[in-house]
Amino acid sequence: MNIQRNFVTNRRWMSIFPELVPQEELDPVKLEAHLKLRKPTKKAEPKTPASIGRNLHVSTLSISNLHNHGELFVNFLRARKKVFINQAGWDLSEVDGMEFDQYDTPRARWIVLHEFGEVLGGVRLTPTTSQCGHYSYMIRDAQLGVIDTIPADVLFFQAPVTPSIWEATRLFISSDTPAARRADLQRLLLEEMADTAAEMGAEHVIGIVPAVFSKWMTRLGLLSAVQVGPVMNIDGTRTQAALMRVDG
User: Fold this and answer.
1) Is 3 inside any structural domain?
2) Is residue 38 part of a domain?
């Protein structure tokens, strides 16, 4: 089964996160330091969907509640296909206009921003304790050589397996979203991601992001985030793993 290609051209990443720009190379750090991160000193603004659209909604989906959300999950997978296959050009599994992979299991949670039935953004969360056949979660599977589309040295340390850390993947904001709304939508999506992860017992979320991502989140006062992997310049894109504190 095809796995997402996490490293695309800078132009493609900028179409998903246009506010993010390159930054200086970052020094390696140890996992122990990250798990003791202080929460941001700047208080994040409360979620106010009405400020960016009266009819905007954010929903956290699970296998057990999909029946309460009509076609939302299908529309979410279709939006993922548009963003990651049609626009970014990643070689991923698809059927009936939907993108999916082996990490879309009953253990996952999907956070979806939507308005009038249109999906504006989303992200998938997977516990690092997940196991489905010989797959666990994306970063760990890359480190173990189970998948080969992500470098095995993606982390400075052994991939964690603990209920207190979840992995974030397939994070996007629709390219059809007006630029004036993007920052607010990104903030709302990340806040809901943090809330959902914390509700599931997580203290941190780990994921592969553009190299500037952790500083961008901290600057907005959203999450305490640090880099936990080397900066990888692949196909002209500077990406790395980041660890984000979400509890409290």
Assistant:
1) no
2) yes
**DSSP letters for 88-145:** T----EEETTEEE-TT-STT-EEEEEEETTEEEEEEEEEETT--BTTB--HHHHHHHT
Residue 231: domain span: 10-245
pLDDT above 70: residue 216: no
CB within 8 Å of 192: residues ≥ 6 apart: 47, 58, 60, 111
Residue 140 belongs to some domain of the structure:
yes
Q: How far apart are CA 37 and CA 39, in angstroms?
A: 6
Q: How far is CA 62 from CA 65, 75, 128, 141, in A?
A: 5, 15, 17, 23
Q: Residue 180 sits in a domain of what CATH number?
A: 3.40.630.30
Mean local confidence (pLDDT), 189-218: 85
Q: What is the per-residue pLDDT across 51-107, written as a single tens digit (0 to 9) for each?
A: 566 789 999 999 999 999 999 999 999 999 999 999 988 889 999 999 999 999 999
Number of domains in the chain: 1
In this structure, what token pair is assigned to residue 104? Answer: 């879309």
Structure tokens of 217? 């989140």
State the DSSP H helix or E strand holding residue 13, giving kind and residue range, or none if neither. Answer: helix 10-16
Decide if 2 is inside a domain: no
